[in-house]
Amino acid sequence: MGAFVREAELKGFIADVRLTRPAQEALVLARSVLADIEPPGTIPLPAWVQQPREAEFFVRMLFSALVDADYLDTESHFDAARRVRRSSDQPDIRSLRDAFDANEKAEAALRPDTPVNRVRAEVLASCLESAGHAPGLFRLTVPTGGGKTRAGLAFALHHARRHALRRVVVAVPYITVTEQTAREYRPGAGGRRRS
User: Fold this and answer.
1) Which of 4, 109, 171, 188 is the most interior residue, by most CB within 10 Å?
2) How confident is the model over 1-28, as a mean pLDDT?
3) Where residue 44 falls among pLDDT bands split at 50, 70, 90?
4) Contact status, residue 7 vs residue 14, Cβ threshold 8 Å
5) Is pTM, for the whole model, over 0.85?
6) What is the DSSP string of the chain?
7) Do 194 and 123 touch, CB atoms closer than 8 A?
8) Quick one: which of 109, 112, 110, 103 has its CA closest to 149?
């Protein structure tokens, strides 16, 4: 199957897979253990889903949450000590925001005054200004090297604090970007100097 498929092809593929013997056996077993495994009817989308892009975003976030929940449940079963460590002593959004702001202020003082750093500062200022808007779907489109990683985190922490949100979830598309983002956000690793 290619990287891009039409919806009808995907539905056909799923229907074909569900008809295979192993899939049927798995469904019978699942239904015998969990009687309410299938919803009684169509599950409505949230009211805020009005456009195709909003529906795409919702499905991606839902899938991500399900995968994450599965990993965390598995971890909880096999490594209870790690689960306890994960759930204790987590800093709140205000502490994270304040730590980020202090780090950004210190790093900004060390950055040379270059055209690229001025653009990065504008991107950051725009993100901080947008953090006051009501929760919703936001998009940050900036070329490579424009400071998206830190500016996006600044937005997220300020937005979460402003609207009394408890968590910030960062979803990035590629493993390499995930690793870069994690290095930037880790205590002591973030704010590496840029020229």
Assistant:
1) 171
2) 69
3) confident
4) no
5) no
6) --SS--HHHHHHHHHHHHTSHHHHHHHHHHHHH-TTSS-SSPPPPPTT--SHHHHHHHHHHHHHHHHHHHHHHHHHHH-HHHHHHHHSSPPPHHHHHHHHHHHHHHHHHHS---HHHHHHHHHHHHHHHHTTSPSS-------TTSSHHHHHHHHHHHHHHHTT--------SSHHHHHHHHHHHSTTTS-----
7) no
8) 103
